[in-house]
C-alpha cells in the first residue's frame, strides 16, 4: 500500500492492550484500529495481513511487549511497531529501541501524540538509520544515547531534554569519530570490548564507568542493546548512558550506615556481656577489671583503663589498666592531670559529667604536646573519657583507646556512656553493701555555718531546732527527707517553707503544739550530696549555731572527693572530725531476740495468726475479720495489735 493509498483509505493499526485505545486515536478519521488483549491474539491477527502498524502495551498477560516485538520482527521486520505503555522507564525504552521498535511513547503523552506517532511510524519507510525517530524516542527518557558501530565509531548522539549538562562532548564533534578519540586507551578498549560482547550475545548488557565531565568526575550506567538492522553495512548498538553519581553516593552512604549499624549492634552486644559480668563482682576492683578486660579484648578498642575521680590540684592514678603498658598509661594520665582545671579533660568529665572525645590524636587542638607525645608512644589514634557517674556522684573516669580515627560516633558514645552509668551504679552498690556488712567504718562529721537547706533556713528564721529522722530514695533521683522540727508551730514552718528556694516539695506529716514532722524534697541538701558521694548519713541536726551532719564511709572511699562533692554546693562546709568507728553486726538470732522483747504477747499472737492465715498474701487467704474471729477479738482490736507490731518490726529492721 502506498502513502497515497494509506491516506485515502486510512491506516489499519493493531492495538494490543487490555484497555481500549485513547479516544483521540479511536475517533481519528484516518485511523482504523483492531484491539486484542494478548500477545498470542496479536500474532494470530497478524497472520491475516492488512495491518499497517502495531501499538502494544509493555505489560501483557504471560509476556511483555518486547517479546511480542521480537516475534513480529522475526516475521515482519519492516512492520512499524510502537510501544505505548504505563510501565515506562529508561530500561524499557532502551530495550525497545535495541529490539527494533519504531517508536516508544509513555501513555502520559496522550492520545493526540499517539495519533501522530502512528501516522509517522507507518509513513516512515526509508532505509538506513532512523535518526528522526531515534531523536523523538530519546525525548521519552532523560538520558544520553549513542549509536555506535562494532568498531566504536559514533554514528549518532541523541540527548533527552534534561541531559545538556551531562554531555562530555558536543554531538557535532563526536559523530564520525571513535571512542578512542574521546577517552583514554584503557577506557576506550573497555568500551569497544563491551560493544562487541553485546553484539555477540544479542541482548542488553550493562556497564558502570566513571568519566570526567564539565561537572567533575561522574559515574554513569551504560545499557547497551544491539540494533536489529545493520547501519551502513556494519553491526551497531544503542548505548544509553544514565548519570548514576547520586545513586552511587546514596548506595555508598547506605552501605556505610549499614556497616555502622552492624558495628553498633556488635558493640551493644559487647556492652551487654560486660554488664552481665558485673553481677558477680564483689568489689570495685573486680568491676573495673571486668569492664576494662571486656573492652580491651574486643575487636573495637586497643585498651582501656579506669581511674578514680579527678580532684583539683591532685594527680589521678589509674587503678586498672588492660591492654597497654601501665607505665605508659600512667604518663599519659599524669600529663592530663597536670594541666590547669580549665584545660583538664578529667575536670570536664568529673565536674560537667560530659564525655571527652579525641577523634584524631594527630589533629586534636585540646591536647597538649606532652599528651600527644604520650598517645603516640601508646600507638593511640583516638580516645574517649567517659564519666563513671551515678546520680550526682562521680566515681571516676573510664578511658578507652579507639582502633582507628573517628571511632566514637554519637550512637556508640551514647552506649558507652550508658555503660559508665551502670558501672557507677555497680560501684555504688558494692560500696553500700560492703559498708553495711563491715564491722568498722570511717565516720566523718561536717559543719555548715550558713546552709541554705531547710536545716539552716528554719533555725535561723524561727529560732527552732531541726533533726533528720530519716530519708528514702524516690523516683527521678529525688530524696525524701523526714525532718522533725522542735520549737516552731506547723503554720510558721509552712509560711517559711513557701518562700524557701531550696525546697521543691513539702508537706506536714504530723503536727503538735511545739513542733511538727516534715516530708521534704530538696532542690539541694547536704544530706543528698553526701549520699551521692557514696556515704551513709547517720544523723543531721541544726540550730542557731549551724548544721552538723555525721556520715559513715567505707575505708576505700577517697575522703577528699567527698569533701569536694559537698563543697560544690556548700563552699563553707568544714570537715571537723574523721575517725574509725566500730559498727555492731547484728545476727539474725539477735534481731529476733530484740523483736521478741519489743512485742507484747497479744501483738505477737496477732502478727503470727495473720501471717499463717494468709492475711499478707495476694490475694489474701483470710480477711481481717476472719483472723479476728479466730483469735476471739474484734476487728478494730486486731488492727490495733497489727499496726503496733508492724511498727516495732520496721523500727527494729531500720535501726
Give an overview in words.
The protein has 655 residues and is of the alpha+beta class. The chain has five domains: 1-129, Response regulator (Rossmann fold, 3-Layer(aba) Sandwich), CATH 3.40.50; 142-243, PAS domain (Beta-Lactamase), CATH 3.30.450.20; 263-425, GAF domain (Beta-Lactamase); 440-582, no CATH class; 588-654, Orthogonal Bundle (Arc Repressor Mutant, subunit A), CATH 1.10.10. Helix content is 42%, strand content 26%. The chain is built from 24 helices and 25 strands. A hairpin with a 2-residue loop joins strand 23 (536-543) and strand 24. Helix 13 (326-337) packs antiparallel against helix 15 (369-378), helix 22 crosses helix 23 (624-631) and helix 23 crosses helix 24. It starts with a helix and ends with a helix. The model is unreliable at 1-9, 125-132 and 161-168 (pLDDT under 50).
